[in-house]
Amino acid sequence: MSNHSGAPLTLLCLASYEKGHRFLEEAKNLGCRVFLLTSLSLKDTAVWPAVDDIFYMPDDHHEWNLQHTLLAVSHLWRTQHIDRIIPLDDFDVEKAAALREHLRVPGMGESQTRFFRDKLAMRLRTSENGVRVPRFVHALNYEAVRLFLETVPGPWVFKPRLMAGALGIKKCYDAQEVWDHIHRVGDDQGLYLIEEFIPGDVLHVDSIWFDGQMQYAVASRYGAPPLEVSQGGGIFMTRLLERGSDLEQGLLQLNERVLQVMGLENGVSHTEFICAHHDGRLYFLETSARVGGAHISDLLEYSTGINMWTEWAKIEVACATGGGYQVPSAHSEYGGLLVSLARQEWPDTSSFCDPELVWRMHKLHHIGFIVKSHDIGRIDYLLHEYAARVRAGYHASAPAQETARD
Ligand SMILES: Nc1ncnc2c1ncn2[C@@H]1O[C@H](COP(=O)(O)OP(=O)(O)OP(=O)(O)O)[C@@H](O)[C@H]1O
Ligand SMILES: [Mg+2]
Predict the structure, then answer these.
(1) Tell me, which fold does domain 200-393 have in CATH?
(2) Does ligand 1 lie within 6 Å of residue 195's CB atom?
(3) Which protein residue has the closest C-alpha to ligand 1 atom 13?
(4) Cα(60)–Cα(23) distance, integer angstroms
(5) For the chain, percent of residues with pLDDT exceeding 90
(6) Does residue 90's CB lie within 6 angstroms of at least one atom of ligand 1?
(7) How confident is the model at residue 403, as a pLDDT?
(8) Is the CATH code 3.40.50.300 the one for domain 10-114?
(9) What pTM did the predictor assign?
(10) Residue 234, ligand 1, Cβ within 6 A
(11) Which has the closest alpha carbon to 114: 131, 101, 103, 132?
């Protein structure tokens, strides 16, 4: 596989967490030269597919110094050309943008990337374009915050603009609690926003984009809202929505609108919405330019045959070579995913043996399943039943920090 000037097409993939194996494999299958830049702390544990070279960045709990990252990649650049820089984890998205800007590599730059990482930028961009969002305010100007808390009824969420995994989100029931958080974070208050808490079902749409056009999308609904799961120690569940239902159709349309407004050109997105209990309407929650985490890509692959990582790799190669992209034909089964922390180190799951069970998680102190069927009712039944059995015999809860980045 060669780039426009006939040299081997070279991708530099960033992975501060162990992610994106299928992307790396597919890029190699397609004949690319693949370099991986990853966290030094993963050196002895991560098992990566065969790539052309792996470089390590010293990290502090997976965080890299951006200046050092620029220097490291510039050093590599002295002897290697790089056609594309690909962030495999959400936290790598800004680093990739800064590198692209500095080295003038095509792809999303820093302002564009804001719409996929910065929750304040997401709120402003969508609300300015007529998309319904929870009412919000930047947690910075005291008068604006005071007015917001007086006019928008609580509860509210005080949330970091740039985190993931519901890390740092605080639900507040009275205005003083909000002020306490503002004062607690001090000079960092500009890194937060405050928004009304909208009780409802949390949904997600995972989609594939090429040349500014949506190519493919699947809509799903989480069991309990992710905030309850990560901070309340619940069981994580999600399942595909009934195809053709009003909710599914409404979500697919809104997802397309949101990502057009954000200007997504090429790649994949995991975008979340709330279907509010009080009015039944859809509110945009957040978006990203990445594959959905927590084994959602496995759920989608079992249900539809389409792997988001693999498709993303094909899209990057098509963009870099000026080629076309066609999404493979999907099959349309339904699937459900359940993941929980387990009390047991390696839980014995042999009593779960329904024919619909297609995947089990093998991870220390975890239990997890994917079920698939043509019958969505059967998926609901199995998830419900498995959740009860997991709660009774396996479930453990841990502090939010420990579970949040699985
Ligand atoms: N305005 C809101 N109203 C109701 N629930 C909310 C609101 N904002 C956030 N939440 C809850 O918090 C969860 C995490 O919020 P959000 O997706 O914005 O942050 P995140 O840190 O990116 O989380 P994740 O990485 O888990 O998606 C949501 O899934 C939802 O359960
Ligand atoms: Mg989210």
Answers:
(1) D-amino Acid Aminotransferase; Chain A, domain 1 (3.30.470)
(2) yes
(3) 227
(4) 25
(5) 90
(6) no
(7) 39
(8) no
(9) 0.95
(10) no
(11) 101
